Amino acid sequence: MMHAGCGGASRATLPAPHRPLVRTRDDASRAPPPLATLPLLEVPEVHRTTLATGLDVQVVPRTELPLVAIVVASRAFHIHDPGSPRGAASLTARVMERELGRMALAARGRELAAPDVTAGGDGLLIAMQVPSTEVVPALTMLSAVLRAEDCFAADVELARVAHRELVARAQTVGRLASLGALVSLYGPEDPRSAPSYGSALHVERLQRAHCIAQRRRGLLPASTTIAIAGDITPEEAFAHVQGTLGAWARTGAAVPPAPPPTFPQSERNLLLVPVRSEEGSLMIVERGPGPDEPGFPAFAVLTRMLGGMFAARMNIEVRERRGWAYGVSAELGVAADHSTVRVECTVRGDRLLDTLQVFEHELWRLREPARIEADELATAVSMERATLRTQLEARTSVAYALARAFLHGRTLADHARLDAALASLRSDDVARAAASFRLGAAPVVMIGPRELAPALARARPGRFGLILPP
């Protein structure tokens, strides 16, 4: 017996389609889908109190699930503290994370997750989420670590091992390029230009005494908030914090924040990290206004447009017309007193200069309000406003938002003001933000073949330099 499709005389055939498999696009399908009009952002009600010791407590009830998110934030514990050696804050944060993790594992019969501990330029964050029945044990665990005056030598040494691995992993070409961009943007003397964990020499010089001093200097109740969001009433939260952390009364001199950046003009702002590879990378960084400055909403939307429309332009110029592979990303960094945009693109090494020209042409277009299309502006604004809403949806994101606002000296009401400013943004505002982008002066770092050096030197005479790997 012969089967259809196996060489027999009869073959199985598909029925004729009732309509073409490829439809001809009509006018309606070519029109962009209407963007949803978002209502103005409504921030949740925040219940707030301050203990006698100066400890700030913020609570947002959320009853969807029997879970509670707890985030501790300290302004005094930051990586740019001029009174601490480089890397001490990062190393001490790892020590504290080890202590909290050990306590969570030792609490048999309890559902306590090991908290995440991070130290950054604005301060320290300790975050955890627990069932609503475990709030008191979680706060008791946090109290023990925050009030501790000492630390074990074994924890310091194990944290040092992890730091050694971090330093070793950072010795990559990409990390060299990133540090080169930061030095060009902030200047070599600014603490933001150096890695928070320090060098291998910094890590080896740090001792247990430095971690103890960092802990006593940076963990002060008057510089700390506890943000709680979840299935708990404000009265319960205030009582639990008072009962577990009310005796935390450490005092000390106020730790100054990092000095405001000066952004000195760099002598060399077109840098090349030479590699033996056909693939290259382009990184562009630029300063921006702080979150309280009028130009910040437009700068945030400009970042969205650079990430989206520059990628679209690269798709047309690079992939469709010339057949190059590429990848584009744009990231906005926000500090208390300024912001930064970081645009990265991966492309063939011999096309890096062409890619920079495509980016500059796109930025020139965005400087003209008439050339900013209504749908691209509406899309970028909607994405930025949607991001604000995601920060206030889940209990963990709400607690993080409260903690970060505290570190920056802000409140959740600033989210609503930013959303209102975004809703009224016009193409003229984005064009002004694009005009503030310093074409030819913003730091550009490339990773590519050394043969590019002569062309790059001609592109920016006197501003080109090499970053040589160690």
UniProtKB/TrEMBL annotation:
| Any GO MF annotation of the entry | metal ion binding
Q: Which Pfam families match?
A: Peptidase_M16_C
- Limits of the Peptidase M16 C-terminal domain: 221-381
Disordered as annotated region, ranges? 1-35
Family the UniProt entry places it in: Belongs to the peptidase M16 family.
Which named protein is this? Answer: Peptidase M16-like protein
Organism, per UniProt? Sandaracinus amylolyticus
Highest lineage ranks of the organism?
A: Bacteria, Pseudomonadati, Myxococcota, Polyangia, Polyangiales
